[in-house]
Known about the structure:
Mean pLDDT: 91
Largest sheet: 7 strands, mixed
Oligomer: single chain
Helix content: 25-40%
Structural class: alpha/beta
CATH class: Alpha Beta
Shape: elongated
Number of domains: 1
Strand content: 15-25%
Amino acid sequence: MILLASTSPRRKELLEKACVAFQVVPTETKECMDPAYSPAVNAMVSGWQKARGAVRLGAYGTVLGCDTIVVADEEILEKPKDRADAFRMIRKLAGNTHCVISGFGIIDTQTGLNRADYVVSRVTVREMQDAEINALLDTGEYEGKSGAYMVQGSMRQYITKIEGSVDSIVGLPVAEILDCMEREADGRAGKIQDKRTPGRNETA
Length: 204
């Protein structure tokens, strides 16, 4: 059972699609990008802080936090402040390739697991006319979305190429997270096995 430190409906849908048992838990954290660090590190730290925030509120078990950011021309495009800001972001994305980075943190209060990592994907958007951008904004999908768009929404018709994990672009790199957890579980099992297996000069 994963304790998801997020209320994002998209992240919940991704876990449901992957048939992963999970429960949403509250978290407390302030999303703040530190210019001293790279976008990837910022995303990773932010995801981990969400997991830590849930643990501080009493979550017990395998806690998962995630944060997804959009980076274009070295600028982190956070959630737009208003329609004008969203227009500026889409204009910046149009005709270019940008990065979408999902950083995640996993804290297991039972096993002591404490990991953070990130997944980078690339999205290419064709040139867009102002009328097309305004039509996109009319859908309201930009509200509350990093980079002012949803890859699975109306923006999809303007995307010409995706490199990497679509799930990560949506908001949660499920395969990579499960792989990380599996590797950690295998590592713990290996350590237990090493302790139980007699050495060459030992008897069973």
